[in-house]
Specification:
134 residues, alpha+beta, 4-stranded antiparallel beta sheet, 4 helices
């Protein structure tokens, strides 16, 4: 069972150490003590709390799709030349970047501030672990 110190847990949830301590005091998140007597939280419990707290905007398209990796966001930047474009979206706490044709950008009417949905279909997902954890 992986355990994280309060500061590490706070970084994963993008909140302050004090917020994590308040959640522990309120029973929202459990804690225990490590061998050195420091307060720690169970990493799996923390991940489940993060899932419950994750709030992304709803999909405004009202279209059914088989793709499950969909991120609703706002276009923050577009870099394009005559053929290709790089479109950046901010989807909640996630930055998503797509490379597409400049023609597609024009056809979709994309510009900074536009609401858009990133649909991700990946055949390869690479997962890394911090150094010394393998």
């Amino acid at each position: 069972m992986t355990q994280l110190r309060i500061g590490e847990a706070a970084r994963f949830l993008a909140v302050s150490d004090d917020t994590v301590r308040r959640w522990i005091d309120a029973g929202v998140l459990g804690s225990s003590r490590d061998a050195a007597g420091r307060a720690v939280v169970d990493a799996l419990e923390l991940a489940r709390l993060a899932q419950r707290n994750a709030v992304l905007p709803g999909d405004p398209s009202d279209i059914g799709r088989s793709a499950r990796n969909r991120f609703v966001g706002i276009v923050t930047d577009i870099v394009q030349d005559t053929v290709m474009a790089q479109v950046e979206l901010q989807c909640g706490p996630h930055r998503v970047v797509s490379l597409m044709s400049s023609e597609a950008v024009r056809d979709l009417g994309l510009e900074p501030g536009s609401v858009a949905i990133a649909v991700v279909k990946a055949t390869t997902v690479i997962i890394e672990t911090p150094a010394g954890k393998a």
